[in-house]
Batch of 2 targets.
Target 1
Amino acid sequence: MPDLPSQAGVVIVGGGIVGCSVAYHLARRGVSDVLLLERRQLTCGTTWHAAGLIGQLRATHNLTRLAQYTAALYEGLERETGQATGFRQVGSIAVAASAERLEELKRGVSMARCFGLEVQLLSPAEAKERWPLLSLEGVVGAVYLPKDGRCNPVDTTQALARGARMKGVRIVENVRVTGIETALGRVTGVATEAGAVRADVVVNCAGMWAREVGAWAGVSVPLHAAEHFYIVTEPIAGLPSDLPLLRDADAASYFKEDAGKLLVGWFEPVAKPWGERGIPESCAFEQLPPDLAHIEPLFAAAMRRVPVLESTGVQLFFNGPESFTPDNRYLLGEAPELRGFFVAAGFNSIGIQSAGGAGKVLADWIVDGHPPSDLWDVDIRRCAPFQRNHRYLRDRTVESPGLLYGMHWPFRQAESARGVRRSMVHERLAAAGACFGEVAGYERANWFANQGSTPRYEYSYGRQNWFAQSAAEHRAVREGVGLFDQSSFAKFLLKGPDAVQVLGRICANEVEVPVGRIVYTQWLNERGGIEADLTVTREAEDSYLIVSSCATQTRDFSWLCRSIPPAARAVAVDVSSAYAVLGLMGPGSRELLATLSDADLSGAAFPFGTSRMIDLGYARVRASRITYVGELGYELYIPAEFAPALFDALRAAGAPFGLRLAGYHAMNSLRMEKAYRHWGHDISDEDTPLEAGLGFAIAWDKPGGFRGREALLEQREAGLRRRLVALALECEEPLLYHNEPIWRNGRLVGRTTSGMFGHTLGLPLALGYLANAGDEVTPEWIAAGRYELEVAAERFPARVSLRPFYDPASERVKC
Ligand SMILES: Cc1cc2nc3c(=O)[nH]c(=O)nc-3n(C[C@H](O)[C@H](O)[C@H](O)COP(=O)(O)OP(=O)(O)OC[C@H]3O[C@@H](n4cnc5c(N)ncnc54)[C@H](O)[C@@H]3O)c2cc1C
């Protein structure tokens, strides 16, 4: 066994491309006290057999920037380290074999434009010019990304490792980490076959093993391995060595020139989970048996697209394992369960192209104590604790690999491992025709099918089959009354004599308010960025109910717990599962509620922004006058076991009022008309409340201040360089989703952050940020522009406003 130091600043577990990239970037940030431990040899896990495609267009701006960074890094790594990487910028072509796929590609073109990525639309003939072996059968268009490329994954990993060593990192092979040491919620080191090593920071880059390594320390790392296939042909005469990569997502296939041969790989819709009883210890440079029956239909589809395959022999049938996550996005960041324990794993078959960027931002995160930009899409805090459940992961992994090349439909829902978390009224909603969507395993009614029709999505980029039903739900809320099941909300209690001071520091708004008041507030980081967007209800002198969204439950609770100073007399409890939440919303809601309650519900006795315990039916519930839909309404917090009976009572009492069950799609349409922000889309940890137009929720001068105040003061002084606005197309089509470029007087000035059709306004709506090339964005500058939104490479005139289009003075909410 090699001699290990007894102490290191950072220990990295795993010497695949990701671990080596983290080590390299830590060293570049000046952290040389880094020890990387690899149980066998560098690259022996998944890295050694990767195909080496380096694509750059990802689903978000920041992830695209990371992929762009990766390509630039690999391009220069040989010069820096003397170790070749095989990197070549050959470009890539994606072909579309259906109108829907072409729309997807064209929307991707627009997205790439606002991410600053070079991209060209190609006709089928132009695609063939660049890729002569292509069969154009069924091809209706294509897209060319000239900056995409390829590399040799083993050489690239070795180059990163060499770069890290050159800056003082110690890399030790053939030593297995066997345990994670912790004390008082912090990591303190690792146990290894060669003895213990104390460390301030441990980074879990253990690839397929990362779930098990995390579990040693009670950390959830939800990933599961699946078999992943490609073939390499015999040499093909005349194959150009600079052939672009080719993707035919409709055939689930990709093609890469590989030393005069073709490498053809697949992302099949129904995949094969692997390692169900754990990843074998013996697994190193593992090659799984080729499953010819499994790949035969895939191969047939690939041959139709590239007919030369029919007459070319296959030199290698390759099958290797790779890890996949439940939502097909990797897992990055400090684990919410354990301070100092970082994770970079679950790369869903894009680990080579992601490693450069992921390694860089993780190193920044470790050194600076926070992520350098909004990384929510891949942040490990998006995961619910249950998601490490083995059976759930295995069942979801049947679906995950196929998602990369599947249609990225708007509103697309997972099909596997469903029904995990259900609200207390789930069966009642289902009986009423609910079509459910899933967030972190929670089933939520998105829309309700009319009697006689099936609650199932029929996807498209245009109006989907639920459009009319959802419109009717929307109108019921605007004109009468609607009932939402919002039980998936995250709910926390903060209790104790110091609760008011503790929360006062975390919240930008004033929370030292009379008992019974609800405060809408943001939690900010030191840079003024929005970490959370939620409501806080003072339910007693020393107790607050904090309500946030299902998607951010883990993150927000972790932020809350970590913000309580050790000496403070305040304790936080997650009570999400204890309460159901029903949202009774619409101008008829007060009258309806009054039929079930003797409480004085008048506007004077029970105004907007207050919360009271009331008798309702046979139950006693907390009623809060708050809304996310822009109408008079009540959120009812109901002890879980009372919820079914109360739901029935509300529906029975609601019949004469025309009460309609409403789903999350209607809620989204309603909130967009009111320009209510959505954390994760419109606001994030890199947007400040001032930029987001939430300055009204800042209590600048409250005693004791709040975290982030100084940064906001500076920004207020300097003027805003970007601002969130509401946008509406001036025509009914096309529909907006997000990441559509915003043009002002013919210049690209921003992109949308969320989009939805607004049924009251009758127009596609969006929210988005505008920037003025580094200058201040003033209301005058905004008003003086002529705007267009780009959708699928075409521009459409749009209106822009700093205020909501619907009820800007919120008169309907406050009545
Ligand atoms: C067939 C195939 C084709 C692919 N093609 C591409 C592609 O074209 N482009 C792309 O971007 N990606 C591709 N990928 C995905 C890519 O290979 C992976 O995402 C990437 O290699 C993951 O790197 P990693 O460092 O996270 O994991 P790994 O390479 O598996 O590294 C993890 C390391 O941790 C070590 N380890 C585990 N437990 C311990 C322990 N207890 N102590 C010490 N060490 C430990 C392991 O031995 C291993 O070496 C492909 C994958 C497959 C299977």
Target 2
Amino acid sequence: MCNDIGDRRDARDDVVTAVTARDDSGAVTTGLAALEARLADELAFLQLPAPRWTPMLEHDGEPVADVAIIGAGMTGLAVTAALVQRGLAVVAYDEAPAGLEGPWATTARMETLRSPKHLAGPALGIPSLTFRAWFEAQLGRAAWDALDKIPRLQWMDYLRWYRRVLALPVQNAHRVTDVLPRDDGLVELGLEADGRSTRAWARRVVLATGRAGLGGPALPAFAEPLPRKRWAHSSDANNYAELAGLRVGVVGAGASAMDSAATALEGGAAQVHLLVRRSDLPRINKGKGATHPGFVQGYARLPDEWKWRIRHYINRQQVPPPRNSTQRVSSHANAHFHLGVAIEGIDEHAGALQVRTSAGPIELDFLIFATGFKVDWRQRPMLRHIAPCIRVWKDRFRPDPGADDDELAESPDLGPAFEFQPRAGASCPGLERVHCLSYPATLSLGVITGDIPAISEGALQLADKLAGLLYVEDIEHHYARIESYAEPEILGDEWVAEPLPSPASPR
Ligand SMILES: Cc1cc2nc3c(=O)[nH]c(=O)nc-3n(C[C@H](O)[C@H](O)[C@H](O)COP(=O)(O)OP(=O)(O)OC[C@H]3O[C@@H](n4cnc5c(N)ncnc54)[C@H](O)[C@@H]3O)c2cc1C
């Protein structure tokens, strides 16, 4: 555990609430071991995972996975778990070392998650798999009650446990370099691991590659000519201690802007200037207000016009930075919030960045662009073979005048099984075998694409759809199985056959 909340637990609460169970010898166990025993029971009660029911396939002497998942962050783990539950042969690849998947323990800089602590996250409807169960098993109910928001590194610890306790088939330090759908029902993957290139085959592939899953950082045009040593994107793995003594500008006002500014200040930056184009910070998180079971389950059924209208409205309103993150910045006397300041150009001159803004010039040593992410296929070389074929919303949808939105226009236009669909005139056999569950899918699918509130719904829906597709594809095989199925339920010795009584026989 990597927080100090344990110090606050009280023995009485532990007695009342800590999970207890008996191990194989009948001894009472408590804490995580007991939770894991309870989880094993819950899975057994639910008959999970189902036994494998798909045919074992090979290609070039190698086993073919039913589904390969690219990315083993929170989404990749949840999808992998849901597919394993459905009796499928899956493998997840992540380029990160084990335990360092996703942003939580690497590039994220917030102290706590934004999400409220009580959300069930990737638990897939299983109580003992929730963050709360994991937390209380170790620290007790009083600590849970005292917890405000989930510390960032503690969330990563929970995800590590989730993967371990479900024994999920993840291969770390495996970078997927190529996704090549074929016309024979397989998708070929190029992989790099241990400095070697290898290939693998799967019948379906899921992209669970995160916020920047189909692209990378969204940078303003004026960033591009600047010397790289003078700037970073908020998602870069920068060493903020190197900003000590510098005048740092942070462009943007979202959560990542606050986290970057606070980390720079805590690292000893001489001044931090938040340069915010808006004249005020957004105050209300419209996305949070929109989320309820109807929104989660019904959004994907909406007509295109409604999807665009909702997502465009939420985009335009923007998401406020969390209050605690903003206060973490403003608690420093050398933090400066500049609102209504648009950057017009930047030059490097006299050993500094000369930034021209709508409110006048400012001289800075370093700039952090907390400007979010965008769909940009060039930044995802593994998708280069299919990117030219993939239909995006702008290929077939025209928004109402005044509702243009670049982020939405570039979003993939996914089919009902979250699959990529071909552009008009494009030929890419097997493209429909590549499924997308990452943030850019939000316009098509709604909020089930990777954030904590609805990630279980996304994972379960996709797993159900993939199980169904694989069954239909193999119907000959499954029919033959029905035909060859020969397990008797009665043996023939349960009764004795008799002729009908003769009509002439007396009663
Ligand atoms: C700083 C930050 C804070 C956030 N805070 C919250 C929050 O409080 N609440 C909330 O609901 N959401 C939050 N989010 C949004 C979202 O929940 C997270 O981005 C979350 O990590 C999404 O999980 P994911 O598995 O979809 O993507 P990620 O966690 O980003 O995982 C994607 C994985 O894909 C792997 N990968 C990518 N390309 C390849 C490749 N070619 N080969 C192999 N592996 C590859 C990566 O190594 C990575 O591990 C936050 C996002 C960020 C960036």
